[in-house]
Specification:
By secondary structure, the chain is of the alpha/beta class. The chain has 2 domains: 10-40 and 176-264, 3-Layer(aba) Sandwich (Rossmann fold); 51-173, Rossmann fold. It has helices at residues 21-29, 51-62, 75-88, 103-111, 125-129, 153-160, 180-189, 200-210, 224-233, 246-264; strands at 10-13, 33-36, 41-43, 69-72, 97-100, 141-146, 164-169, 172-174, 194-196, 219-222, 238-241. The protein has a 5-stranded parallel β-sheet. It has a 4-stranded parallel β-sheet with strand order 5-4-6-7. Strands 3-8 form a two-stranded antiparallel sheet. β1 (10-13), α1 and β2 (33-36) form a beta-alpha-beta unit. α3 (75-88) runs parallel beside α4 (103-111). The two termini are 30 Å apart.
Amino acid sequence: MATAKLSNLRVLVTRPADRSAEFGAALSEAGAKVVLQPLLDIAPLLSPEHDAIIQHSRSVLMSLDRYQRLIFISVNAVQYGLDQIDQYWPQWPMDIEVYAIGAATAAALAERDVNVQHSALAMNSESLLACAELQNIARTKILIVRGVGGREYLADELTKRGAIVDYVECYQRGKPDIDGGQLRVLLLQHSINVVALNSGETLGHFTELMGVAAFNYPVLVPGPRVAEIAKAQGYRIVIQADNAGTTASIAALEHYAGSTLRTQHH
């Protein structure tokens, strides 16, 4: 039953098309009006454009049993990465510890019968790096499964600790088929008063499409890193969730909705 805590919010959800349903439903349950408009597309790698990446990933995965740690960055990394791993390893290699960033990523691994280490603690790269198992890792071989050209912070930090880090890049992110004019019409038509942006990349796409008009909208972002980017770009109202998960996002919006109402009443 709807709690109506967010009844004053009309939220544009910009997650990729196949990743927006759970968040949209949770927002609706809390009383918000929800409009879905992906600002990030997820797609498989293509030949010949990605031939070198595809070949590297194939070579790495055929040597999967040489790695001691395997880190999945996202639900998409699970989907595309496990599909590739299954081609070469019908029987999962022994003695590999698997880590997930985010509860949804951990759940996606569990659905594929993969056991995850400390999933509940790792809602972002920073919290994953705090895990005890990733402290003394000199000469440990670690494989990160991600999309093409993701953030380098995790690999850089693991390398500083003496680990030998490699990537499997198994999908690509792209811009959806919508232009700035269409997006402006959508925002006005639905009287959107919060835009939920799930990543720095999505924030960048929104800013690019909207221009300076983007800064008139309150934006929900996952964590301090993306919040700092938004503020530096010129966004005036930045609603910072603790992470990109649905629970943290809803909590941040409830706090924002409550503080907005209190301000209106004084």
